[in-house]
Design brief:
six-stranded mixed β-sheet; globular; binds 2'-monophosphoadenosine-5'-diphosphate
Length: about 290
């Protein structure tokens, strides 16, 4: 790609950003479509976020992704919030629309697309979500209106309770909540249709950990893993063995990126190219 005076810049801001796979994914897509865009990652500390956003405006940077720990703090600095972000209370994508910064959240839509792609029909099913952090929140808000029953289980029960409360207040959706004891997991997973791991359990370097005992898995329970490093977590390996339908963590990363890409460019994203770029960037990162 020839960088010129007309090249548009999209960038990730957050801390840390060095190991992000987003630059590889988006630059591969820009290149494939011959779009005059480039994607970089900028480490921005929380206390310098205000300056960074002023810089985005002054430099007329076209689009941003926002990651930890800035997804909530960035909200008051924006000019407009799309419904996808205002409901969840977090922003992961910004579009500079003629000088106005508009905040979106594509994590929730990305999760829906990942599930749809795997042909998981959410209509009326029972879903158990492990976790109550940022990722769990985005996913829970997107699927809550569709599912029949939702259970939020988190190590810190108060956070699950707060999320359940917010779902009811903002969407009018009821969710039960609880902790992560074996007894609770056993009881809730017995008749569940889908379990989503939105905790960091299973992530490198603790890759031999899983929150689900293999005997709770089976062909009637689909498993959506949000951890993508490694892609084949212990949970996913156990789930495949048990005959469960599985959706891996790269799917969410991919589909949230696909949604961001269309917001910035208005062009249909090359999904396969983006998935391949993610896979090879992850391989390179694991080798290094
Ligand atoms: P993210 O943005 O990826 O969701 P986060 O907001 O820091 O990250 O949330 C991390 C989630 O993983 C939380 O639900 C956290 O549980 P707590 O709320 O109790 O901290 C969960 N988590 C992290 N380590 C865990 C562990 N060892 N066992 C169980 N849950 C864990």
């Amino acid at each position: 790609m020839e960088i010129s005076g007309k090249t548009k810049l999209c960038a990730l801001i957050g801390d840390p950003v060095e190991h992000s796979l987003s630059p590889a994914m988006h630059n591969a897509a820009f290149k494939h479509l011959g779009l005059n865009y480039v994607y970089l990652a900028f480490k921005v500390e929380r206390e310098r976020l205000k300056e960074a956003i002023a810089g985005v405006k002054a430099l007329k940077i076209h689009g941003l992704n926002v990651t930890k720990p800035l997804k909530i703090d960035v909200i008051p600095l924006l000019d407009e919030l799309h419904e996808s972000a205002s409901k969840v209370g977090a922003v992961n994508t910004i579009l500079n629309r003629d000088g106005k910064l508009v905040g979106y959240n594509t994590d929730g839509l990305g999760a829906l697309k990942a599930l749809e792609n795997a042909e998981v029909d959410l209509n009326g099913i029972k879903v158990v979500i492990f976790g109550a952090g940022g990722a769990a929140r985005a996913v829970a808000f997107s699927i809550a209106p569709k599912v029949g029953e939702m259970v939020l289980l988190n190590r810190t029960v108060e956070k699950a309770e707060r999320l359940a409360h917010d779902l009811e207040e903002k969407l009018g959706c009821k969710a039960r909540f609880g902790g992560l004891s074996e007894e609770v997991k056993r009881r809730e997973l017995r008749d569940a249709d889908l379990v989503i791991n939105a905790t960091s359990v299973g992530m490198r370097p603790n890759k031999n950990l899983s929150l689900v005992n293999p005997d709770l898995l089976g062909p009637d329970l689909a498993v959506f893993e949000l951890v993508y490093n490694p892609v084949e977590t212990k949970l996913l390996k156990d789930a495949r063995k048990a005959g469960s339908k599985v959706i891996d963590g790269l799917s969410l990363l991919l589909h949230q990126g696909v949604e961001s890409f269309s917001i910035w460019t208005g062009v249909k994203p090359p999904i396969e190219v983006m998935r391949k770029a993610l896979e090879s960037a992850l391989e390179d990162a694991s080798d290094g």
